[in-house]
């Protein structure tokens, strides 16, 4: 393995440790301004009242989680950083918060909505491909899925308080192929949405049960 590939692999594996280290500081810096509101409203418009939502990479639930709960929905939050789950539990003890890695979740239930916002894109391209099977196992006909990604296949390194922060993405046609394989239809997609801090957002809904092993 080349040094560059080894470095990328190390950074990808270090994501959880970075959020364990900087989770509270990042949460405070992030604040409560909800620049994601328009996309959350699109997501919620497709859900029933008092929907069950699986939030993968839920963090402390101070922004997206707070908004979803305020609209009357029931959250199950997953995060691999213990400090994030502890803060979410303190903020909303009536909801379910689980210290787990999204790459290995097996909750043996389905949800009305699945959200992987600013979390899914920290996985390697190979792990992202595998995640679509996990999305499917937690989805039924009608389940709405929303996630953020990059704009093309590749890896990029950001920064969190001086630590290198790994990101990756598949190509748009790869995401579309995986969604289609598992019976999801793209409802909306915007690349680098200027109205959402430059995020590339995918909104899809499952219309057919297929692709599950």
UniProtKB/TrEMBL annotation:
Domain Methyltransferase: 53-141
Keyword Transcription: no
Molecular function terms from GO: methyltransferase activity
Entry-linked SUPFAM superfamilies: S-adenosyl-L-methionine-dependent methyltransferases
Record key words, sorted: Methyltransferase, Transferase
Domain of life: Bacteria
CDD domains for the chain: AdoMet_MTases
Biological processes per GO annotation: methylation
Alphabetized PANTHER family for the sequence: TRANS-ACONITATE 2-METHYLTRANSFERASE (PTHR43861:SF1), TRANS-ACONITATE 2-METHYLTRANSFERASE-RELATED (PTHR43861)
Protein name: SAM-dependent methyltransferase
